[in-house]
Model the fold of this input.
Amino acid sequence: EETSYYVRLQYNGGILPFYTKVDGITNATGKQKDSPFTRSFIAGGGAFGYKMDDIRVDVEGLYSQLAKDTAVVNTSETNVADSLTAFSGLVNVYYDIAIEDMPITPYVGVGVGAAYISNPSKADTVKDQKGFGFAYQAKAGVSYDVTPEIKLFAGARYFGSYGASFNKEAV
Done:
């Protein structure tokens, strides 16, 4: 039985342009199904966890910043912020699919927690608002044993947040 604590540092830059839905933002004509914010190259985090045989459990902190896509947001939307930031904390559970005598290990995982998100409005009276929402994610990938103590991970994740509520303009 293998048990141990671990620390993980990660870069979470987006490669695929996943959709970011923000209620209250009107997209340009013909772009209604496009995301008002672009994928992020400014994203990362870290985790502290415990491994028990093929199961890992960790507490993860994440930061991400998305930029406004000016080609998608309707020009009448003058109060859409130039960026949207999120700080997230999640508890994750992973299953490592061990392959005998192989340095590569596929894994799958899920996590739940909270996200602290900036208001996507730049209206002076509300731009400094921030709010909490429920956060969740699903992950899959592979790890490579560089040494018995050091692993290199490559994978994909789906991250979502729901429930943060903001004022678009002063009430």
The chain has one domain: 3-162. The mean pLDDT is 83. The beta strands are 3-11, 42-52, 55-67, 83-96, 104-118, 130-145, 151-162.
